Amino acid sequence: MASISTSGWDVVSVTDIDTMNKIINLEGKELYPSEFAESITILNNVLKIVGEWDTWEMLHEASGKKISFRCHIKAGNVEFYNKDDNKHYEMNTNGTLSYLDIEVALDGIVDDPKKWIENDKTSILTATTQCFKLMITQKEKIIVTSSTFTNEQIGNNNLALFCQNAFQLWFNNNIEAFGQIFSIVLIGLEASQGDFQWLKPSAYSYAANNSIDGKTAAFGTLALIDGKTDINERQQTIDVGALQIVKPFGANAALIISKTMFVKHILLKAAVNLIKNTTEEDFEISETGLSLSNKKEMVWQDFEGEDGIWSPLIPKNSFILTLQSDHIYINISNAHYRPRAGVTVYMSLEQNFKYKVEKNKKGEPIFVPDEKGMGDAHVYCHVELDKWLNWLSLVTGIITSIASVFALGIGVAGAISKGAQATLIGSEATRTASFSFKLLGIPINLEKLAPIAIDIQNGIARNPTVFNAVKLGFTITAATTGITFGAIMIANAIYNEKYNDVPSFRVFADNLTGAIQWPRVENMELKSATLADSFVIGLNIT
């Protein structure tokens, strides 16, 4: 899975240029003038262009804030005259249209926000709400980068460059008549439901870009959220790869939520649910914003085992939670406990979680844990013994105990114990023994996990790796749907693979699409959600 970057922006709303062109072609007569007429003086000569426009289309040659168009000429004439001579040329010949390529820049034009919020059920206007229409700006000149006239006489008589200059004058004199709205951005909205205020835009820009192979080009709105307004010198670029990720799901547009925002607003909540008796203040997000860790020593959980309660302590900065490519990654280092006098067990765990898209009974896509990557774990242990006497018997007993905790209710304790014992190494000199095991490739019936998941959501800490999967899974569901109740129902549905009543992430997406809008779009269908070092939502807009 490719990793998608937002290049320092919090949210990017992107679609391909082919989709933009469909909108332009459907509404072209409303978006751009249908006719042109302009004249320029060259020494004692006058050059006059008159004609009709055909289609306008955005070009794949896009970079940063510069947008390129190709403007086709349906019919046109060139007159070149002075007091003694008059020459007349048709621009097109043999039914082949002439065209000009132009480069434009956009700017936000202030508009009434009430016009754009009528269908948005996720937002409330405030006294500070502002609306901006991204349109071709008069602040920067339109540049005609090239011209192609199919009537060769225009070129043969050295008029092509003069015509190009006349067209450039016409374009810049008529910017006010260019009606295309590329995007609508509403700043300062209040979220009307759920914990989604952080998704509302607080600053914006735009960019266009094409893929390295030139096959895909895209236009996108760039936004800061979470109340941030300092754009600074952030890159004016978009990751076209997001469209390649959502395309297999039937989508032609994507919403990309940055890794930093995913960590801050989703994984931070997950951390609180994973570690006993903690709040968000007990964790620290890294300076880069790409991961989080625990600020102080913490009790992981009081896990139930066959021979009692097991309460490992996690040292400061030894719990790491982050998003890595297509999975969520947990690393717990040197969690320790004393199963008996004279024995200390240190445990480290690495666990990956993948997610997939299914559908509920409404036919809406839902984002649920993927049973093929439901917390595959590597567990590393070392045991410190006060005395070396009978070390093998003691450590073997500890392995059996740990296996029972990690396998409680899923019937694979023997497989875990066997795998751990196969790696066992002892050192009399240091009075330590080390072993490891993998919960990877061990066949586990998903239905067997359902009652464990329900117990966990009922407040019983069982089976650390399943505990992590259940708590993380529900946190992701709650954060992307706004549903903060029904944990047991959702756990039962996911682990029995019966998704009818699992809520969709539509409200999450609507909080963004209501604030960052594609104009002249009649239908918007939610298609997918994917982890790709960011959170990528696929949409089909028509």
Automatic annotation (TrEMBL):
Residues 6-412 form the Protein OrfX2/OrfX3/P47 domain. The keyword 4Fe-4S does not apply. Keywords: Membrane, Transmembrane, Transmembrane helix, Virulence. The chain crosses the membrane at residues 388-416, 472-495. InterPro entries: OrfX2/OrfX3/P47 (IPR010567). The keyword Transmembrane helix applies. Belongs to the TULIP P47 family. This is Protein OrfX2/OrfX3/P47 domain-containing protein.
